[in-house]
Design a protein that fits this description.
single chain; alpha/beta; DNAb Helicase, Chain A; Rossmann fold; nine-stranded mixed β-sheet
Amino acid sequence: MFDADATVAQMRVPPQSVAAEQAVIGGLLLYPEAWRKIEGSLEPADFYRRDHQLIFTAIRDMVERDRPFDAVTLGEWFQAQGMGEQVPDHYLTTLASTTPSAANIAGYAKVVSDKALARRMVSIGTEIADAAYDPRFEPEEGIAAAQVLMQGLAPSHTGGLVAVTDTLPAWFDDLRYRFELGTSITGVPTPWKDLNDATHGLQPGELIILAGRPSMGKSIAGLNIADFAAVDRHVALFSLEMSKNQLNRRGISAAAKVPHEWLLAPGGSDEYWAKVTAAVRDRRALNLSVDDTPALRISQLMARARALHARRPIELLVVDHIHDFKIDAKLARFEYGEIAQGLKTLAKEFNCPVLALGQLNRALSNRQDKRPNMSDLRESGEIEQKADMIIFIHRDDYYDKTTHMRGIVELILAKGRDVEAGKSIFLRNDYAHMALRDREGDLPEAPEPDRPAPRAGGKNKFFGGGRRGGFGDQD
């Protein structure tokens, strides 16, 4: 049976306005100074007709090279490019002669831009429909991809040039507020005073990487930061590694100071129940949104974060962890670069800090000096380039049971703006309660190295020798 609707749909002409396109180009040919009214508002691809795309490209090229343009010079430009047949001289002359004025050129440019947007919507709709028809279609990935495609249509209101005069009042008000409050924190504070003093908090618009080997405590640190911030800020936590129940158990353990082992296997004394009940009540009040879907793609995470941010602005985004994303192993270096760039994009877009946890290379464990450095970060080149701040977490007592640094966790500020690169922050290991806590007092001193006794009748050639056993000086 003949399907009239389907036939009409196939015959539809994509959204366009040739008249508006001609008015824009004709206006420019008639009054070249009108370029200032539309500069930056149109791209060649916004024009529907191919010859109009070429003409606009030529005009922009001549403007950028500070060369005057009109129907004659444009004709010469096309001849020089070997495209005289695609844009005949007589058409350029007709456009210039039939356009009465350039007074409304900005309005015509808006029509051209709107039609281009409509065509992109049609194209995206077709792409989404084609994906849905594919037998291999996966709803979760399809929805995420569609959201990302549609997000790209939305105009951005966060960019563009702004007069410095307009930016000063808010900056000065913030400075005065912090002066009166007596604080140096300019970003999202962490639970630890020394780290806040060193970084002034996690800064809006920045990507912060917290990396370490397994069992160093990076997931504990990440959850501590998320829970602490969620008391008075909206925090989004994407846990690609642990489930919601695991996160709740760890969060309750840290807040109530109840042993994590007891929460795994409650029994015996009921001394902890009051603390747990109070911690559960407090946790209910946190402004914390959790997604524990494993093996997400970065496009999926970005789509979900944007959807959440549209409902309620995100003030801190935490990802645990960056090496648990679903990737093509053959393109690991490229894909981790895309992941880091995606997270950095969200930080700028939401104007909030993004804290991403990450793994360090296994080779570190085979070295005598176990303290991490930048080259230990997996796919370090791509991630290091995109990150605004990189913090390494290290436990000397994990590798050396006799160290004088037992019970101490070191945070190494490897990279950052307005921070002292290489500075270390030392915290107390309270991993029995799934927490890192501020520590008081000086660091314990390293014991003097033992000196071998001199043999009878001989000299002690080791006298005064031996290295100091200070922290970070391991062979």
